[in-house]
Amino acid sequence: MKKRRLINVSKVTYYAIEKTKDFQTTVPDEGAVDLTMEMLADGSWKTSKFKKMNVKTDGKGVVGGYLHPLLKVREEFKRVFVELGFQEMKTNRFVESSFWNFDALYQPQQHPARDAHDTFFMKEPQFCREIPQEYMERVKKTHEQGGYGSIGYRYSWDINEAKKNILRTHTTAVSSKLLRQLAVELEQMKNEKEFKPRKFFSIDRVFRNETMDKTHLCEFHQMEGMVIDRNLSLGDMIGLFSDFFERIGITQLRFKPAFNPYTEPSMEIFGFHPQLKKWTEIGNSGMFRPEMLEPMGLPKDITVLAWGLGLERPTMILYNIDNIQKLVGSTVPLKDTRSNPIVNLSKKK
Q1: What pLDDT, in 10s, does the model give residues 68-112?
Q2: Of 121, 99, 124, 119, which Cα lies nearest the Cα of 109?
Q3: Which residue, 305, 306, 245, is CA-closest to 280?
Q4: Distance between CA 175 and CA 157 in Å, rounded?
Q5: CA distance between the termini of the chain
Q6: Are 255 and 266 in contact (CB under 8 A)?
Q7: What gap in Å lies between CA 290 and CA 286, rounded to an integer?
Q8: Is the peptide bond before 28 cis (omega within 30 degrees of 0)?
Q9: CA-CA distance, 280 to 320, in Å (whole number)?
Q10: Phi and psi (nearest 5°) for 60?
Q11: Which residues have C-beta within 8 Å of that of residue 67, sequence separation ≥ 6?
Q12: N or C: where does the chain have the smaller number of CB atoms within 10 Å of the terminal CB?
């Protein structure tokens, strides 16, 4: 009958409950659980009955304190820079003047990157307090009339435009200040033979009025680097990048010629994203133009290799993340931060 599905087999369990000597109709009073401020204030703790506690048992495990993947990769990048002999620049100013962010870099005032749809302008304070007068005049003349092998941009340079405060769009504003400071030091020494090659880097946040998508944010991290020496070439720059990225585990690189107002030649750096299965731009680079360096007071034979690399996109490549909003933002699950590897970089042997 079971095979013919004429009956169903079911199991029923019965329990028999009997009273014991410990049976009670009321819940026993085990005493107060916590010692409160009120008990201490009125002295009732002296006569209160407290629940017995096992002070020898292990407490609940502590969770939290996990490092975000960006922090892990940032520390690894910093370690690589230090291994290569770089010094870290101070980048503790998010607000910069347009002069140091754009004009000092030989970027014309009518450049599209200086429009409100690309840059965040400050309402208060709207303008910076001061700009070095003598240096500003040289920058103005270079923009308007040219010099140092250039004919300039042939427009009327406006100091009010240069004084506008912005949220820095790149940490190159820090590099321009440092180069100017280095030029002043060389002028004070009055001896070009005293010059020593220098290498600097920084990793900090920058801000751009971007349309957010899988690979773009309005606020992100930029790694800035500079090598300052005599008679450097484009080959030196490519060799440096290849060595740097190999040390952090990115070996599939492409270099594409590009245009920047303040570097010539210029190159965009692309890395292959294994999950997106496409080449993703991870940085921009070039050699600073004479129109930028010589008005600062640097000698003509000094060359500066410079580059800006994003931190988020290399992290996406290293951790196989296909959307930047899965890496940064309020929608990122905390469990992902806890479960990510301690480090996910292939170190060069």
Answers
A1: 888 888 888 898 889 889 999 988 889 999 999 999 999 999 988
A2: 99
A3: 245
A4: 22
A5: 74
A6: no
A7: 12
A8: no
A9: 13
A10: -70, 140
A11: 337
A12: C
